[in-house]
Specification:
Strand 2 and strand 3 form a beta hairpin. The protein has 1 helix and 3 strands, in the order E-H-E-E. A 3-stranded antiparallel beta sheet has the order 1-3-2, with helices on one face. By secondary structure, it is α+β, with helices and mostly antiparallel strands. It has one domain: RRM (RNA recognition motif) domain (Alpha-Beta Plaits), CATH 3.30.70. It is about 15% helix and about 25% strand. This is RRM domain-containing protein. It comes from Eucalyptus grandis. Keywords: RNA-binding.
Length: about 60
């Protein structure tokens, strides 16, 4: 902690606005992902069915 009582962070990069979802059902589509994620912010972009098993997705806010 710094002398002002605020925690100090080693990295100064801005936080990412992309989340990685895993273990999704095979039938999960882009529309369902957008509907699922909308309560957490405006969905800008999605990439579905990625990964070796095609059960992963990325969502950008």
């Amino acid at each position: 902690m710094s002398t002002s009582g605020q925690p100090q962070f080693r990295y100064t990069q801005t936080p990412s606005k992309v989340i990685h979802l895993r273990n999704l059902p095979w039938e999960c589509g882009e529309e369902e992902l957008v509907e699922l994620c909308q309560p957490f912010g405006k969905v800008i972009n999605t990439k579905c069915n990625v990964g070796a098993n095609k059960n992963q997705a990325f969502v950008e806010f």
